[in-house]
Write a structure and sequence with these properties.
disordered N terminus; 2 domains; 7 helices; four-stranded antiparallel β-sheet; about 190 residues; alpha+beta; single chain; elongated; Immunoglobulin-like
């Protein structure tokens, strides 16, 4: 499990946003990918909000919407509204995150701080297949180590999309802090530098 500790006092985080006037969604959902916590907020006049305690480690959530009230993440993923391209938008829990949804969930605009910017840029790198430039831009971001772990896991699959050489190149772009972390050392063992 990936842990990055942020120094400071516990405070509230506000995740809020809007849906387009033509959207009929009634509920917004957050699903904590680590703790598996499932949160629900009503969408009233195309607006929703969640108030959470800021964690002392990196917390990633999927954001989603639906017309029906769901009791669990499992129930949500079985609903007819779920599926490509409405599988959810990954967001990082930061002080304040604004989500504007005008089309599908995965393309919701997210305004936050550096972690959510890194997530957006990661998905742009995936779309454009410009992985190396992402790691150059975010050498010390926890999002980089999560992304590289995902790419490296693919190496050991039966149909790898990335070579060890490519992953070594991306690994070499990481900061010394990330390379020396437990996750960085785990990646190093798999790619065999």
């Amino acid at each position: 499990m990936l842990l990055f500790v942020f120094k400071g006092f516990a405070q509230d985080c506000l995740i809020y946003g809007t849906t387009a006037p033509d959207m009929l969604y009634k509920y917004a959902y957050l699903y904590d990918l680590d703790s598996k916590t499932f949160l629900t907020a009503p969408i009233v006049n195309h607006q929703f909000s969640f108030k959470l305690n800021k964690p002392d480690k990196l917390s990633l959530f999927t954001f989603n919407v639906n017309t029906d009230l769901m009791k669990s993440h499992e129930e949500l993923i079985k609903s007819p509204d779920y599926g490509m391209p409405n599988r959810g938008r990954i967001i990082a829990l930061e002080d304040s995150v604004k989500i504007s949804m005008t089309t599908v969930t995965q393309e919701a605009a997210v305004k936050g701080r550096i972690l959510n910017k890194a997530i957006d840029d990661m998905f742009l790198a995936i779309k454009s297949k410009k992985y190396e430039s992402f790691f150059e831009q975010y050498p010390d971001s926890p999002i980089s180590i999560i992304f590289l772990k995902t790419l490296v896991k693919n190496i050991v699959s039966s149909m790898p999309l990335f070579s060890r050489t490519e992953c070594k190149t991306y690994y070499n772009k990481l900061s010394d802090r990330l390379k020396n972390s437990a996750e960085g050392q785990e990646i190093l063992k798999i790619i065999g530098i």
